[in-house]
Amino acid sequence: MKLSTASMCLLLVSSAYAFAPSKVQVCVARPLTSLSIVVGEDSSVNVSEKMEQIFGSGPQFNADFDQVVQDHFPNALSNEELVTRVVTKLSAKGYTGANTLLATSLCCDELARQLEDDLTGIYGNNFNLGGLAGFPFAGNTGFGAMSAHIPDDGYCLIAYGPHVGLAADGTVGKVERSGISLVDTCCGSAFAASNYVKGITDGGAEITTKLQEFTDFQQGAVHELILPHGKRLNEAEDRMVELPFALYDSQDLLMREIVKKGSTGIKRGLALMGGIQINTGPDTLDYFVPLRFDFMDYRGDVTEDMLDIFKEPFDGTLSLK
Fold it and tell me: Which end of the chain is more exposed for a tag (fewer CB within 10 A), N or C?
């Protein structure tokens, strides 16, 4: 992969933004009927209230569907469990809603806004670094602008990664959308890029002199950035399951370079949480497969790999320190 070309693309492209549709509540029992909040100080009561506002309504835990998710994506966590674990861990490092800037690099698709909404409910409005398929198209310039907005003596949390749909019948790469009868493709950008790569690896791609079009610059970049994974995708047992992991690997490589170049803008600390969003229909919970959770100091050095917190026993307790 020639990252110099990709990096040039990142500086030229802006990303679209949309709002997530609200989820529909269903009456299915969940194992965790409420969050047990351990309040360390008065300000933590506000976090308890925020968590209740975010997750107190909407789809409920469905054990049968959860098994479907785990069959395709082992170790996936519901957004509620993910956010609870993240808030618990970061609060111990000093993160609060007042001293933290949330930044995200997620797909333009409105379904990808769900995770943003869950996190902004705790940390406030986010700085958007992402574009199609979740690639950090804001690049070095966007990261520099974002880091300048981190509160004085404050922290930053970056959540990034691709997304994939999971339909009620267990089909990966498809999802039900509110108000649309068609079970739609998700992620459309990733699916198009997969077909582009397949056309090349299978020898059926159309020969063209057009390398890039400014009217579809981001998708052209997604095509090129996923191309090195062509053999991997062709050999995968389930191409649609493997596709978001291949996308993540390319995105993580870019994010690491961007953060490295902009690390001087980090103040008290930067938490990088990368993984795969699993978007589902209006009646079921969304999930996330965490693949990276690092804490970096103001020098840009990783001082703690926090990924193991997602493997620890979980009882639904939010412990704030």
Answer: C
CA distance 145 to 119: 20
pLDDT-based confidence at residue 48 (cuts at 50, 70, 90): confident
Rounded to 5 degrees, what are φ and ψ at 166? -140, 110
Are 296 and 272 contacting, i.e. CB atoms less than 8 angstroms apart? yes
pLDDT of residue 210: 61
Q: Which two tokens stand for residue 251?
A: 């995105």
Tokens 């791609």 belong to residue: 205
- 3-class secondary-structure state, position 237: coil
DSSP helix/strand/coil, 318: strand
Q: Which residues contact 302 (CB under 8 A, 6 or more apart)?
A: 294, 295, 296
Pull the structure tokens for residue 124: 């406030």
Question: Residue 41 carries which DSSP code?
Answer: S
Look over the chain and give the mean of its residue pLDDT values, rounded to a whole number: 85
Question: Closest Cα partner for 58 from 28, 37, 35, 32?
Answer: 28
What pLDDT, on the 0 to 100 scale, is given for residue 9?
Answer: 45
- What pLDDT digit, counting tens, does each position of 117-145 carry? 999 999 999 999 999 999 999 999 999 99
d(C-alpha 6, C-alpha 21), whole Å: 32
Is the peptide bond preceding residue 187 cis, with omega within 30 degrees of 0? yes
Q: Give the span between the Cα atoms of 111 and 74, in whole angstroms.
A: 21
Residue 119 phi, psi (nearest 5):
-80, -40
Q: In whole angstroms, what separates CA 114 from the centre of its chain?
A: 10
Instruction: Please give the Cα distance from 60 to 12 (Å, whole number).
Output: 41
**Which residue from 145, 240, 137 is spatially nearest to 187, judged by alpha carbons?**
240
Exposure string for 156-190, b = 16+ CB within 10 A, e = fewer: bbbbbbbbbbbbbeeebbbbbbeeeeebbebbbbb
Residue 212 C-alpha from the chain's centroid: 27
